[in-house]
């Protein structure tokens, strides 16, 4: 087993020892094999690290910083040759030979589920002191910048750039807001990746303690090759830990699909619908791509700081299955918004089978966590969400079982539910819900703890359980649901087109069947669902069946009947709305809990002013036996190893009593006010 050293003062012709280190990480990466360690000393390494070999479960390949200062791996090159063109505008011309693999100023951001924008956006970026500027579509807009209306930080959008690519050079104009680029650190994108194996199947690699920044990966849809600033590229058993990851054009950490995945376009349009394309990608991965627990996934992504990535902090289709994602701080994801798409979130995972997502802080993102397709065996636990624009959690067309427990959901909208089979226990919900069916798409479910597909179904909704949660209302007297579009966020756009469209709300051009309904804080959105305690329809007498009404009978006959739900032990504060399924719910008009968020510092303070108001709502500990099995997968709520759940510890790991547990994330025993701070 070898130990290779890399240093800014090294030489790639040296031996790679501590006394005679290499100059580039890539030199060590071309040699390191199972059991070897690559130790990188302080400095800025402008390279794409492309490992040649993988390790084994017993003998990993470890890449780590030496601990003698910050180790930066960047996909950018510094540019000092700038010409002053007046009016805060500067220009430079660089040879196209500087670019690795492709010229990011020539390649447009493109892919499935990327929406049309005002102008073409390219993969390249210009960075001022490590922070990217905003692309524009003309030199004139560099000279006369205007605030980009969708930017989270409007003032930043006045720093702009524009590029023109020629046969041998690329010319870039930039507005640095009055700063002299010859005196500042100005860089441009040149490489698509920072740490990324070109070959898939390089297993058991650890990447620890680096700053990884400024890469230009392409947009990463689930039906194509999912690039990222760093990632395992369809491998098994990576550990990505203790890194600072930022300024990816698209995804920070990609755990997703490999080269060769996806569908070509014909005349600029797909010949098949998106749902069918994704189904085919899954089946192809099972048939020829080796999508199996023994070969792909089971990664650990922990204790990283990830920010300023324009698509997602962490993303992955299928390749993130059986993984653990914990202890990460993720913020400022999709904050520029020059182009919008359907794959943007702090964490966006498809097919997160048995994936454990816990103890992360996710804030100031467009969307917090998005579980899309096949969240089965997935657990979302002890995370803190706040200041997310759209919603904290979106679960889309999944059949479960998935577990959501002991989380703090603190944004204006907490949950967009277009799935079924979820269990929610001991969470603090301080925002609103969207709950709806999705009858037009059929998506797979799996045999327990496997990638093998067990069946397909659409989403009729329901099959959800809510136990021992706290709903913190906003004392809004309006308890009626509000219509919103599929991708609409809060605060809602004004609706002043009453009377048009046959009296139905006009939803910004989206068809009426795409309307969602945003409900007040609480569980009133489930009032039209049946209850698990109700008699199932197949036990109805002929008269009872006919009394359901023609539409209800039709939905049962064609298999679109809404699934039942279960609730108990929930607490409703500050005007939160209980469901009819919980007629004896404990309700207090007082809020009893004060929430203070500080996005600038990334901190949250929770004050429980009246602990006694939280007690007495629930006598039941939440267990696998209580939760039962989901309707479609017929799978129990259980740990990835098949052992049962028993939620007998609170957010901090404090033991809960065997009876009379406190609803919400925290177990409380005294009567005095308590305060918790996160971040």
Describe the fold and architecture:
With 679 residues, the protein is mainly beta. The chain is built from six helices and 49 strands. A 13-stranded parallel β-sheet has the order 1-2-4-15-17-20-23-26-29-32-35-40-44. It has a 13-stranded parallel β-sheet with strand order 3-5-16-18-21-24-27-30-33-36-41-45-46, with no helix packed on it. The radius of gyration is 26 Å and the shape is globular. Mean pLDDT is 92; it is low at 496-511.
Features:
679 residues, mainly beta, 13-stranded parallel β-sheet, 6 helices, 6% helix, 30% strand, globular
Summarize the model shown:
With 679 residues, the chain is mainly β. The chain is built from six helices and 49 strands.
Q: Outline the biggest β-sheet.
A: 13 strands, parallel
The percent range for strand residues is 25-35%
Q: Look at the structure and give the mean pLDDT.
A: 92
Report, as a whole number of angstroms, the end-to-end distance: 39 Å
Taken from the alpha-carbon principal axes, the silhouette is globular
SSE layout and pairing:
Blueprint: E1 3-6, H1 25-29, E2 37-40, E3 43-46, E4 61-65, E5 71-74, E6 76-78, E7 83-84, E8 89-95, E9 126-128, E10 131-132, E11 134-135, H2 139-143, E12 160-165, E13 169-175, E14 186-189, E15 205-208, E16 211-215, E17 239-241, E18 244-248, E19 251-254, H3 274-287, E20 300-302, E21 305-309, E22 312-317, E23 324-326, E24 329-331, E25 345-350, E26 356-358, E27 361-363, E28 369-372, E29 378-381, E30 384-386, E31 393-396, E32 402-405, E33 408-409, E34 413-418, E35 422-425, E36 428-429, E37 432-435, E38 438-446, E39 453-459, E40 465-467, E41 470-472, E42 482-484, E43 516-519, H4 542-547, H5 550-557, E44 566-568, E45 571-573, E46 586-588, E47 593-598, E48 603-608, H6 624-627, E49 674-678
Parallel strand pairs: 1-2, 2-4, 3-5, 4-15, 5-16, 11-12, 15-17, 16-18, 17-20, 18-21, 19-22, 20-23, 21-24, 22-25, 23-26, 24-27, 25-28, 26-29, 27-30, 28-31, 29-32, 30-33, 31-34, 32-35, 33-36, 34-37, 35-40, 36-41, 40-44, 41-45, 45-46
Antiparallel strand pairs: 6-14, 7-8, 8-13, 9-10, 9-14, 12-13, 37-43, 38-39, 42-43, 47-48, 48-49
